[in-house]
Design goal:
The protein has 205 residues and is α+β, with helices and mostly antiparallel strands. The protein has helices at residues 28-37, 39-42, 63-75, 121-135, 151-160, 193-200, and strands at residues 13-15, 18-22, 79-85, 88-99, 105-112, 141-146, 163-174, 177-187. The model has no long low-confidence stretch (mean pLDDT 92). The relative contact order is 0.18. It is 29% helix and 31% strand.
């Protein structure tokens, strides 16, 4: 079940040069262009529909998608962020499968443009999101599922010290087939992820 209440836009969440903010209508064209430029970089990791009816990201306007994203806030089912670096939109981070009741959990998915890869942006964005979910929304658990071949994304959860929970076989339809995913989890009460990242020297200030 969703959280059980509408989610208030938290405003910008910032650490160093990295900011998360809820996606807005004016982000539609910058995101479309970014997705189009990053086709080769992102295609291997993108969700697809088993029927083969998937629309290639960046090929159409993002405005309907953004409206659908923002409806998640009202429904209490997710939080759609864009990732900014020095004020420039460079990726997305989506909080989904947001559950209240006895679960109090959510999942995080993210991508960052190839032209800024390797600068510590993704770990910082994920740390900001986890701290927000535990602090502002009071969740108990946050989960990230990653294809075992996605070495760059595995480095993100390694830097953050998330706990491995094992492999989920044929878990999500990605790039045209059902793919295995490794599951990693963080729990409330384990301290600030942003501070943890800063202590480890992996944040981008």
């Amino acid at each position: 079940m969703p959280l059980g209440r509408a989610i208030v836009d938290p405003g910008p969440l910032t650490a160093g040069r990295v900011t998360l903010r809820v996606v807005r209508g004016r982000d539609a064209e910058p995101l479309r262009q970014l997705l189009q430029r990053n086709r080769g970089w992102l295609r291997r990791w993108e969700a697809t529909h088993p029927s083969g009816r998937s629309i290639e990201p960046g090929s159409v306007s993002m405005r309907p998608t953004i409206r659908a994203y923002r409806r998640q806030l009202t429904a209490g089912s997710g939080v759609p962020f864009v990732v900014l670096y020095d004020g420039e939109v460079v990726g997305q981070l989506s909080v989904s499968e947001l559950s209240g009741g006895a679960l109090q959990s959510s999942q995080i998915g993210y991508w960052v443009s190839e032209h800024v890869a390797g600068r510590g942006i993704a770990p910082t964005a994920v740390a900001l999101a986890i701290d927000y979910l535990f602090g502002a929304l009071g969740l108990h658990r946050v989960e990230i599922c990653i294809r075992p071949e996605n070495v760059a994304s595995l480095r993100v959860v390694e830097k953050l010290g998330l706990r491995p929970e094992g492999r989920r076989a044929a878990y999500i339809h990605i790039d045209g087939a059902w793919r295995d995913h490794e599951c990693f989890v963080a729990f409330r009460g384990e301290g600030s992820m942003v501070q943890r990242l800063h202590r480890a020297g992996n944040s981008h200030g």
